[in-house]
Write a structure and sequence with these properties.
Blueprint lengths: L10 H7 L17 E2 L5 E4 L6 E6 L8 E6 L5 E7 L2 E5 L8 E8 L3 E9 L2
Parallel strand pairs: 1-8
Antiparallel strand pairs: 2-3, 3-6, 4-5, 4-7, 7-8
């Protein structure tokens, strides 16, 4: 598959990008096996953070891997890990500048995103 082409302000551009992994904003949830996780199933704290964040996932879907992926504001993947239902990230160890990041948590059946704010 190729990278998407066309106008980034066109919604179709971002939907096409999900076909090759795309950005966290391009996942077309209505066309895949994933459903959106209930809001109370994902806990990320502290947020905002000056470095470390804890990620806890409450889910009945424990049969497969849980993928946690961090993206910057441009949609570039910064970090990804396959883990259980909880994880600890030290954002400072990743060499990240203060700013806004998106954490995508995906199981075999569901997906969720949360904005993370990194401060000095």
């Amino acid at each position: 598959l190729n990278n998407p082409t066309g106008n980034p302000s066109d919604l179709k551009y971002w939907k096409n990008s999900s076909q090759i992994g795309g950005t966290p904003f391009g996942d077309n949830l209505s066309e895949g096996p994933h459903t959106v996780m209930p809001a109370d199933s994902l806990s990320v704290y502290p947020n905002p953070t000056s470095g470390g964040i804890n990620v806890d996932l409450v889910t009945e879907d424990l049969s497969g891997k849980i993928e946690m992926t961090l993206f910057d504001v441009t949609g570039k993947q910064i970090y990804s890990i396959n883990t259980g239902t909880s994880a600890f990230f030290n954002l400072k160890n990743l060499g990240l500048a203060p700013g806004s990041y998106t954490l995508r948590v995906r199981s075999q059946c569901s997906i969720s995103r949360m904005r993370i704010i990194l401060v000095n």
